[in-house]
Write a structure and sequence with these properties.
This protein is mostly beta strands. The chain is about 5% helix and about 35% strand. The longest helix has 12 residues.
Amino acid sequence: MDISPEEYREIEENETISCATDGGEQRSIRLEKYDDRFATVSVDGEAITISLGHFLHRKFGNPPDDVVSMVEIGGLRIIADITRNYMSGSKYSTSLVNLRKDARIFVGHAGKQLSPPGSYAFPMPDFEWNFGESWLNAVPYGWHLAVDIDADVGHPLVATTDGVVVAIRHFDALLQEEDYWGNGLALLGDDGRIYIYMHWVSLAEGVSEGSRVVAGEEIAQLGRSGFESKPFAAHLHFEIMILRHPEKFRFAFELEPEVLPTPNRVLPPETEGYAVNPYPYLVEWYMDSQRPKST
């Protein structure tokens, strides 16, 4: 079964798929085994075990060029994103995982930009790297299908890429019970992906649903909305979603009293998609931001 390069693909244990390298060589990719922390993938019979993430508290911090979920082998880049072990936990988790086979992996060309073609920016300008990967950590509302980036309240948040703001959720602490989500903004990039910003305290002037923004443009300021009374540091909860119908994205919530005392966030089924680990992309954008700008 051939797949195009630069795409996420579901795969069963012992299933083999094929993909061509940038040089046109055909490679066979097989999922040998998996569990809740690792996926073992073979490329033309050469097996490599890939961690799904660091699984450390974000305060420990990982080196900014350390992406344990991504390897390059046989001219291909492979990311182990998630496995069947995470198809539980809450409505939030199951809706954002949306996995029908044993694992989801990314297959692309080695040495190429990971992000789709376009302009990209790290979502916090003038940021000194000090955080660790929090993808797939256990949290009160299920599995953490995002990356949290700590900073001071008021730190600017910028558009990661050119696109349109398609959904905004305003949270009023005086009218709503704290819910772990707070204010939310969804940016539909020109690359077709949805980028989610949660917990901001205020929007940049002129930003509203339908606003057209460009990579690096300020869209909001960091905050603690949604859990003002809880002992959590101010941070950006950042998600990336690949949806068949991204234009249908909206912030949706459902009651799940056995998980949370407040409504839990879900991905509307009509969008037909899933969340992917933002960490490899955040590393790429941050490393790009540290390179000297050409004059």
